[in-house]
């Protein structure tokens, strides 16, 4: 949490694009296109509010199960958006980080991702994390693989494995854990997003479909977050006493 009570890190499952389009009798793809516009608004709001990290779930490791055509269109939209938005992100001091298994993407997409990350890596404003072909369980299993390789190489001892050590091997090693998790579209599930990192995150679910999620709705979610008492296992009184101490 920051001094003004804002979350440092907001993680969002941008859900409901397909239903948004279907409600308007449009092809699902139009919902994804409209979703990109919503991303721009939300990024803008996070910059204004000086949020440190915004993580957006763009494509899950399970989304490959969708019809081929939808997957292909999503990939094209991803490449096109990276291409058209990187300079704008860069000019706004935004650092772009892509998490997930990129090794299965086309060489073209992998190059675009690497270029975009490289171009923005020294920016010090908002860190915008896009989860693409991301799965929380895969993230944890790839961390296992790296840890076991270290152990086999003698660079780490099994007894030194701890929660912070595991966190260092996750895709999010450079990021604080999310303070606020938002899911649009009405479903109340994690869908294999940042399962390790969300252990103590505040959850916020809204019926709004992602293309309709605007700055006002984000402000509502942030306000809900500000009204919560995060206890991390302590009692409510302990938290009140500690905050009194900080005020003094
Ligand atoms: C989220 O919207 C975007 C992606 C998963 C890529 P959906 O496409 O899941 O939209 P609904 O849930 O079908 O409405
Ligand atoms: C989760 O949405 C993934 C993204 C938003 C990218 P889905 O719409 O794929 O989730 P499920 O399958 O309904 O849980
Ligand atoms: Mg969905």
SSE topology sketch:
Blueprint: E1 9-13, H1 17-23, H2 28-48, E2 53-60, H3 68-91, E3 95-99, H4 107-120, E4 127-134, H5 136-152, H6 163-168, E5 180-183, E6 202-205, H7 215-226, H8 236-247
This protein binds 3-methylbut-3-enyl trihydrogen diphosphate (IPE) (2 copies) and magnesium ion.
One 3-methylbut-3-enyl trihydrogen diphosphate is lined by residues 14-19, 59, 63, 74, 185.
Mind explaining what this structure looks like?
The protein is an alpha/beta fold. The protein has a single domain, classed as 3-Layer(aba) Sandwich (Undecaprenyl pyrophosphate synthetase), CATH 3.40.1180.10. The protein has 8 helices and 6 strands, in the order βααβαβαβααββαα. Strands 3-4-2-1-5-6 form a 6-stranded parallel β-sheet, with helices on both faces. α4 links the parallel β3 and β4. The two termini are 19 Å apart. 33% of the residues are buried. Bound molecules: 3-methylbut-3-enyl trihydrogen diphosphate (2 copies) and magnesium ion.
Supply the helix-strand structural class.
Answer: alpha/beta
CATH topology: Undecaprenyl pyrophosphate synthetase
- Reading off the top of the CATH hierarchy, the class is best stated as Alpha Beta
Q: Which ranges are low-confidence, i.e. pLDDT below 50, for 5 or more consecutive residues?
A: none
- In percent terms, what proportion of residues is strand? 5-15%
Domains, number: 1
Number of helices: 8
Give the overall shape, derived from the CA principal axes.
globular
What summary fits the major beta sheet?
A: 6 strands, parallel
Q: What is the CATH architecture assignment?
A: 3-Layer(aba) Sandwich
> What sequence of helices (H) and strands (E) makes up the elements?
EHHEHEHEHHEEHH
SS elements, strand count: 6
Strand order of the largest sheet: 3-4-2-1-5-6
- What is the share of helical residues? 40-55%
Query: What does the average pLDDT come to?
Result: 95
């Amino acid at each position: 949490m920051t001094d003004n009570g804002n979350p440092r890190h907001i993680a969002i499952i941008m859900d409901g694009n397909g239903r948004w389009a279907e409600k308007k009798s449009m092809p699902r793809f139009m919902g994804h296109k409209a979703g990109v516009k919503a991303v721009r608004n939300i990024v803008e709001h996070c910059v204004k509010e000086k949020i440190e990290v915004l993580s957006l779930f763009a494509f899950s490791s399970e989304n490959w199960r969708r019809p081929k055509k939808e997957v292909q269109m999503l990939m094209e939209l991803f490449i096109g958006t990276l291409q058209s938005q990187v300079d704008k992100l860069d000019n706004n001091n935004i650092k772009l980080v892509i998490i997930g298994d990129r090794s299965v993407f086309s060489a073209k997409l992998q190059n675009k991702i690497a270029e975009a990350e490289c171009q923005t890596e020294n920016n010090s404003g908002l860190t915008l994390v896009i989860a693409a072909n991301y799965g929380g369980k895969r993230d944890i299993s790839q961390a296992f693989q790296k840890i076991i390789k270290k152990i086999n190489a003698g660079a780490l001892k099994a007894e030194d494995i701890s929660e912070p050590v595991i966190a260092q091997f996750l895709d999010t090693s450079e990021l604080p854990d999310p303070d606020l998790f938002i899911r649009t579209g009405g479903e109340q599930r994690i869908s294999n997003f940042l399962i390790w990192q969300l252990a103590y995150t505040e959850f916020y679910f809204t019926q709004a479909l992602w293309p309709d999620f605007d700055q006002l709705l984000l402000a509502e979610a942030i306000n809900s977050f500000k009204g919560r008492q995060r206890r991390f296992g302590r009692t409510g009184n302990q938290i009140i006493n500690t905050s009194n101490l900080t005020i003094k």
